[in-house]
Task: structure prediction
Amino acid sequence: MAGSTFGKAFQITTFGESHGLGVGVVIDGCPAGLTLDLEQIQSQLHRRRPGQSSITTQRKEKDAVKVLTGILNDETTGAPITLWIGNLDQKSADYDHIKTVFRPSHADYTYSIKYGIRDHRGGGRSSARETAARVAAGSVAQGLISAFGVTTTAYVSSVGKINCETPYSDLNLTQIDDSIVRCPDLAVAKTMIAEIEKIRDEGNTVGGVITCVIHNVPVGLGEPVFDRLEADLAKAMLSINAVKGFEIGSGFHGASMYGSEHNDPFTLDENEQIRTKSNYSGGVQGGISNGMPMYFRVAFKPTSTLMQSQQSIDSEGNKIVVEGKGRHDPCVVPRAVPIVESMASLVIADHLMRSRTSKLSSIKQTL
Amino acid sequence: MAGSTFGKAFQITTFGESHGLGVGVVIDGCPAGLTLDLEQIQSQLHRRRPGQSSITTQRKEKDAVKVLTGILNDETTGAPITLWIGNLDQKSADYDHIKTVFRPSHADYTYSIKYGIRDHRGGGRSSARETAARVAAGSVAQGLISAFGVTTTAYVSSVGKINCETPYSDLNLTQIDDSIVRCPDLAVAKTMIAEIEKIRDEGNTVGGVITCVIHNVPVGLGEPVFDRLEADLAKAMLSINAVKGFEIGSGFHGASMYGSEHNDPFTLDENEQIRTKSNYSGGVQGGISNGMPMYFRVAFKPTSTLMQSQQSIDSEGNKIVVEGKGRHDPCVVPRAVPIVESMASLVIADHLMRSRTSKLSSIKQTL
Amino acid sequence: MAGSTFGKAFQITTFGESHGLGVGVVIDGCPAGLTLDLEQIQSQLHRRRPGQSSITTQRKEKDAVKVLTGILNDETTGAPITLWIGNLDQKSADYDHIKTVFRPSHADYTYSIKYGIRDHRGGGRSSARETAARVAAGSVAQGLISAFGVTTTAYVSSVGKINCETPYSDLNLTQIDDSIVRCPDLAVAKTMIAEIEKIRDEGNTVGGVITCVIHNVPVGLGEPVFDRLEADLAKAMLSINAVKGFEIGSGFHGASMYGSEHNDPFTLDENEQIRTKSNYSGGVQGGISNGMPMYFRVAFKPTSTLMQSQQSIDSEGNKIVVEGKGRHDPCVVPRAVPIVESMASLVIADHLMRSRTSKLSSIKQTL
Amino acid sequence: MAGSTFGKAFQITTFGESHGLGVGVVIDGCPAGLTLDLEQIQSQLHRRRPGQSSITTQRKEKDAVKVLTGILNDETTGAPITLWIGNLDQKSADYDHIKTVFRPSHADYTYSIKYGIRDHRGGGRSSARETAARVAAGSVAQGLISAFGVTTTAYVSSVGKINCETPYSDLNLTQIDDSIVRCPDLAVAKTMIAEIEKIRDEGNTVGGVITCVIHNVPVGLGEPVFDRLEADLAKAMLSINAVKGFEIGSGFHGASMYGSEHNDPFTLDENEQIRTKSNYSGGVQGGISNGMPMYFRVAFKPTSTLMQSQQSIDSEGNKIVVEGKGRHDPCVVPRAVPIVESMASLVIADHLMRSRTSKLSSIKQTL
Result:
């Protein structure tokens, strides 16, 4: 009911806040016998970590993950897996000046009304710090789905008005981490970095878009009505801080197309496998994966914390000016790339497990 | 797990298929003491009904709703409410020619693999007929939230490349049903209708966009992490057939903006109530409603069923040609307007009830 | 939240009330490809039906089940299965005299306070009529688990102070339906029937106990912490009207034993399969099935409706006398036998499906 | 699906195992504004702690609870609350001799089959150590319900064949902790202690019964069908290690009674409040609380670990002898008293919150 849990079969619950002791996650329902690759988890966390480059917040966090429960000899036992990431850089004093202030486009006001109380230290639970726990859990999910060949790969496709127009299939996705902005088109990446540096120096922030591709999804994942694969992905993405939009396959552009253009004709590939010639569907039909690559785009608004003065109201209803203080990201998308991958992996892991009971013949097969 | 249930506190489960006896829904968790307005439910169903105008499918369905359980003297009793809509026009024979055919961009192939069996009669569970049950339940939800002053209003804002550019706040939303395409800008509506008629006559189909506005949402609805109000709305919308995209507030456009433009400054209105000057947030901050209007856009792909021949594959892997037969919508958005409103109402009803236990003082107040 | 849903993977939602149109159930998550045996469902419903013998209520109900959705050519399709049992004998007038009366040990008072409204016609949702829907769904579950060799068999082991002392393993369980009281020890059955007839003629009622045995449960069903097999069975049984107690294996008697007596030593049977010599555990260890028969006992209180005058209070707080009217069971256990079997089958079906994802090797095996 | 979560509105997820780093719990859905009484939590943990007296296991654990998340200035914020109890005394070496052994009536065998892997160190997740996390969470729930006047009080009513025959209402419940066995009848307590000492010295173990009383439950808690108050209590109790039975109100004895004896007549108390004269119902009617005290009994089997040699099988199928080693409880009931209270408090807290949305008038009242 309070919504800290995500997933039905592969289920995670996150906890913790930005300026408390740390953040963590319990994974319940991960099958026994999976090797836990702690380095891979840590490596994804590093990609999300603050202070990783000149275009992210300069707040320092090591984001070192610690396994609290559920692992024996590097393997899952079927018990809940708990991962914990302690907070290091808890300068709560940084936030004292906003104790009674409603910062524009932050959750200060809505939390105050909802809970009658507010954890002002860095936003408490509304802070993007909670996503570190998602990345840790998502990396375990990535480990699980990779045992079935599935990969989730995200990259920055827009920063403000600068777009990478090349479709994902024509990009070299191995180059994503070759630029600090995580755009695989390295020429576009340079322009993006320059833009972020410019707006950072102005004390401003800018939005962006992340594209994500999921390869090798088996046919038959997803449920036909409410738990369609794209519905669960949409929820997963819109649950990330600052996300304002989601589109899969042809997306909003598809709304302007004709059926005769948009339909994906079935054909056979060289191995006599059923494929579609085009892929406007984005790998899902009727909510269920059809074996083609799944791809979707996620829109992030500009960070709300500016290094500029802004008009606002305090909790007494007085008009005030909010000063720009603290250390924040001029643009969130470079650090959000592993978050998008993680949430996508969690959705696929959940549906992979759920798909095992769709037909009687499958259930009978399982020993 | 099989995903026919939606919502946590106000919870619905739909059942039924397009060419069986009918479709229905159980609503569990509707509070006792709500007057059920059967006419309002029927009226929303009529807006979704096939055969309602020259630009929708000509298949005839009365879509008469019947209350099976949960109501005594027109009032809810706290027991599950069951609504049933019988199928009239079940020409299954219409579908015999596609029994072994995988129609492009339909769910034929994915269902075959997932279930090892396929209900070919009109798509079975993948048919948009299931959404009649959602509209019935959504109308009950609308009745509940209207007791708190909340309204959900959707309209067609694009058909193919024809867009209604006027923002919702400058439109006369009482005119939505004045045109069969359900666009409140009646001049644009005419162009849209002409476009749909043209592509219909070509045996083609076209996509479109629906905009939805939710007025008077109380402050404090939504949960901060996974069950953000916008996340649940995104899931609700992407669970509708043919939907490929969702954006709230500034949406994808917001990704190209600067923080200094995008932030919504807090201010006081004439009644000393806290409001924001702009509303790029779309009424949610930190996943929780801030009392401003919520608005979002939903992208629908063109209907997959064409009255044209298409290349495809059958279940034996043979290359075949699918002929255009049956009676389908050239453009789904006019009929999808009440579906979008219904899913939005279900999300708000659920969160309205969930919000009652966020703080101890609220729980103590309740008698 | 309102609790009309049971199960996680094999999930049912019941609806309907005693004096409305009927009762029904949606089953979501039943795998595709299962043959639905409508006769077996009807036959279980007949065992629960009122008016079936001289020792049950004489109220007449045909309890004819109708399949509304989810079946094509007698086979499940993976879509939700809806079963409906119309009410015939709705003499609501029978209940007008209790409209404002709080009958002793009925739910009249608690419903009035909880809902602020009360469906007085036969108890509405609190009526045992709701269990007809459970029996219908439970029979589908029985069909599913029987595909894995599992059987659930219940019988009456006590009526008032008359007990069948013979353990289940020494009884001929094929004789259960040879007596109208459903006790397989036919000599004891006769005494039980005489006792029920006596108390019926006195306008009184009496309690009883049902014993249930589940054979051939595969090793490994059940989850280790909250969803232990015995915990889910306990919930299932205590959710049946009039049930006041549940015990599995040694039960309450086990509380008076020593560990040296109670422990079940492991051994090998003639097929080199691991078995236990004794079975005080009742087939579960650590919440998980160990392959031995599961057996448990369920205590039912005497029916609350008497054909005698009783002191009570009405909704205005006046002292009143409740007269004995209506047609009710002198003893509920004979008709409750199929209900116990059904709820047990639902628990096993749910855990059978859930068990398919406990270990990575199982998930990989499934095609 | 993996069942480490309990509750719907007030929801807990436990994690951790006996010989790992520790055990913990996340509480999601606790309302904001509740003062957390850390001393009360610690005090309940001390009542569960090993090594607390001569009649419990001599294994030493401090069971010091640490708050990881969700609390600001001793108050809940609405964020998930995480409590952690580190393991101190992890003599895994104690368990090396049972690495491949299936100990009688333990979960060794069932876990091996279910997970294909086994955490042999002290039973891993099947260990009663997991219940420390429940006690921590249950104490928070006790804090919440005590804000509404509700109290949960448990005591030992049987040890082996020694019973405390006095009904709870005639006992001085403030004396429960006056004896180390936690029976408020201090004469009976002495006999119980002597019995436990005797069987301990024989290397044997013995079962027992705990009685629990819940006072001041408001009328109207519980849901009418599957989530009856007694059904959720039964599940809660049967989910505790070693529990084999549950009965509420008249329980199994009620099955032998007549309706004329068993019915609880309604009457008015001195404050014109509706009460029942007798209370065989145990405070619930139709699954919903009626304002009378709730009381129930929970049967615990004797501890499976004996200090005696036992015949068994190892994982290779060889017949072996299991030697009695380790430090275990001769009788679990004295330490299980706070566990029963905690699980009962969790059920009441969950239903207290759920009950706030049963009727429209209540929802409207809440600000």
User: Anything to note?
Assistant: Residues 5-366 of chain B form a domain with the Chorismate synthase, AroC fold fold (CATH 3.60.150.10). The CA atoms of residues 128 and 241 of chain B lie 6 Å apart.
